[in-house]
Amino acid sequence: MAEFMTETKQWPAGPPGTGEPPMPAVRPRPAREGGPLLDGDGNEATAVLDRARASVDPELRAAVDSLPGAMRRIARYHFGWEHADGTPAAGNAGKAIRPALVLTAAAALGGPGARRAALRAAAAVELVHNFTLLHDDVMDRDTSRRHRPTAWTVFGVSDAILAGNALQALALRLLAEGPNPASRAAVTRLADCVAELCEGQHADTTMEERAADEVTLDEVLVMAEAKTGALLGCACALGGLYAGAGEEEVAALDRFGRQAGLAFQLIDDVIGIWGDPDRTGKPAGADLAARKKSLPVVAALTSGTAAATELAELYGRPYDEKDLERTALAVERAGGRDWAQVQAADRMSRAMQELARAVPDPEAAGGLLALAEFVTRRSS
After folding, report:
1. Which strand (E) or helix (H) includes residue 204?
2. What is the 8-class DSSP label of residue 212?
3. Residues 146-177: tens digit of each pLDDT
4. Helical pair 119-140 and 183-208, crossing angle rounded to 10 deg
5. Which residues on adjacent β-strands are paired with residue 149?
6. 119 in a domain, yes or no?
7. Residue 29 belongs to a domain
8. What does residue 131 show for φ and ψ, rounded to 5 degrees?
9. Would you say the pTM of this structure is higher than 0.90?
10. Which domain holds residue 315?
């Protein structure tokens, strides 16, 4: 496969007198082996994701196929590999953002050898991600994911929960059986991450039971970091571990992923209100219908505006489909949409600071930068 060459680059200097590390002014175009390749349209992130999916899928399928019968069937349906009746399907198994972060971080600090060594870790992170999706769909009563009925609507609540548990156990087994010296530290880090994910989900569900005016922005940001940022940070950190990186670099990669994860969640919450169902695979305004206290909603509710009062009144009564458009407009008029977009840009800036600490060579960091830009520039 051809390599793409580029001129040598350096991170531009940070603001004078701030003591901050250099910041990227433009997206680097990676050229080194193990870094991202450009696709026909020059879309680096798409090429990185496609390469990660191609690398991880065989490992992921082999792992899922090792599950006992019922768990295997539900998992294969959830991943889009089978229809409900067990016949083969060519469905969408997701974008592979998290495994791509593992592999790209490993390559950035350790080259192609580290990327190959991190394949099990990339599959394990994807298994954990899908464990959370199976459980989230049950708790949120979501009826569609990836343009098909969710597993709990097909197999029942109990079986969907059990399949999620099986995927989590499988992820830890994959790491524990790995021959790499980094495996032990990786198991501990991923297990700690799962505990943090559960705490974040607990915070999310308990917030839904509280009155609209009782939830603060700080609470929701902490919850979002635990629920979304933690796994993205863990993915990057695992890549660093398999590259043999030092503690400081691994910690900076974790912080990079967490900040990018918060930016991701902010944009995802915007899409959850204003996204196109034909592209998201979910009904329009699903988060509003579920009365979720997403980041744009809480920002709107705490804005002190007349629109905030209207939104609180709407959120305080049972959902009525005819109020959906009015509710979305109230969030926007109260500044929730603009706040979320500004915050996403700020979190992306913080992520770049951490990336510069972890990977001083901007050429090597290009793949991680492309992925971070991809998850924060989605429109659906």
Report:
1. helix 183-208
2. G
3. 889 999 999 999 999 999 999 999 999 999 99
4. 20
5. 144
6. yes
7. no
8. -60, -45
9. no
10. 44-376
